[in-house]
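Subject: Sanity check before I submit

Could someone independently write out the structure tokens for this chain? I want to compare against mine line by line before I put it in a report. The sequence has 137 residues.
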Amino acid sequence: MNYDHGALPAILSDIMEDVGLSKVQVGGLGSLVFMGLVTGAAISFVIYGKFSYKLILACTFIGNGVAMTGFISCKNYYVMGFARFLAGVCQVFISTYTPIFVDAFFDRKRKVFWQSTIILGAPIGTCIGYSISGLLE
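---
Independent answer below. Compare away.
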């Protein structure tokens, strides 16, 4: 899930050249995913209170896929920015539900392993993003 957090910084110069963006605009694209995370966190308790977990997760997985596809296939700064923001919003719901899922469905011996794996997911995904983007550049 966090592959894009590491991939974007690793290919900033390519994005600037291909899309014709300034350093400020590219910096904005990098920060919009985190603004989406903050916004999603602020509204997540309301959404979780009104809708089923299955519906929320289905919508956020689809939304995250749409956001990633929109970002990589578009050369319009505003669409790219919206895609980054949407990705952040969607990732909040996935991130907040995963520990609940582990707690509810895994036995005590496996909970610690899976909770640790979840915590490692963000930095590992970011490292993979940096690495793959660096290799492809």
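---
OP: Matches mine. For the report I'm noting this point. The chain is about 90% helix and 0% strand.
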